[in-house]
Amino acid sequence: MADPYSDNLIAYDRWSDDQLSVVNTNFLDKGVSYLDFPSNPKSCNVVGSCNGLICVAYKQNIGKPERLYLWNPATREVKHVHEYKINIFSNYYDVLFGFCFDISSGDYKAVRIVIEHRLASVMAIRFEVYSLIKNNWKEIKVNRILPGNETSFGRVLTVVESKCPAIVKGAIYWKIKHVVDYHSRFALLSFDVKSENLCTISLPDSIMCRRYSWEISLFEFKESVAVIDEKGQNEDISIWTLDDDRCWIMKFTITMRPSPFKIVGCLVGKYRVDDQLLLYNPVNNVVKQTQLKIANPRVYSFSESLVNLSLLKQEYAR
């Protein structure tokens, strides 16, 4: 999702857009610029954006896994990520993707998590990490199948958002839904790229029991993972952040907002009526309009860079 400290936002409608729309938040009157996808846009999904690099996944024919690419729009360099190590043989599975910068190693990493559903109460979770510097995938071993009644994953885990909606301090967060004690609950699935640990995080009590996934938005806010609780069209919006001790704190509440209005990312919202993309400042409670209209937006931060996808590997080889 969008970073409030970045000057540019990239947005696209995964159902209809052939391009990425770029909005400069400092010069809203200059309109919208566009980036062409490096390949067939109709089968493309953005996994994430980091330091000027965009990770995109392309759907293939039925039965074939998505192809992953790293793309630097500033240099027009595109790199196909090598074939995965994990093959999927089950007919019932979910796949999560993530993309993040590992500051401890100076490496860009992609994450692929495969969740295979086996019977009603048992699932298998396997995951692998791609290193841009090493140019390969490494599977992280999970030594046992995870039965729901013995782990924090719950009996049934449902993927709500398969691409990463939040990247915070080297960790990737996805929104999931699982069943605990016969009750459906929303939660977060988190992967730390440095420690390569995968874990679940409970949401605040007022949020975890929401009925619909659209009532909960996930993003990065001032170097913390944050969730938005949208109770109803004409009600206040609550913003919660997770502190270093894994405790949720209600940061602030949006009481004045255009109606109907929906938050789609950090400091970003849109009218539901005419799909106008808006910027919201929680400090002064000011809403500014952009010149972008988009029906089903995914929003990411973006800053141009000259990161060379090939040079990182060459420097590692030395």
TrEMBL record:
Q: Which domain of life is it from?
A: Eukaryota
F-box associated beta-propeller type domain location, by residue? Answer: 42-263
Pfam families registered for this protein in UniProt: FBA_1
Task: Enumerate the PANTHER family for this protein.
Answer: BNACNNG10540D PROTEIN, F-BOX DOMAIN-CONTAINING PROTEIN
Q: Spell out the protein name for this chain.
A: F-box associated beta-propeller type 1 domain-containing protein
Tell me which species this is from: Heracleum sosnowskyi
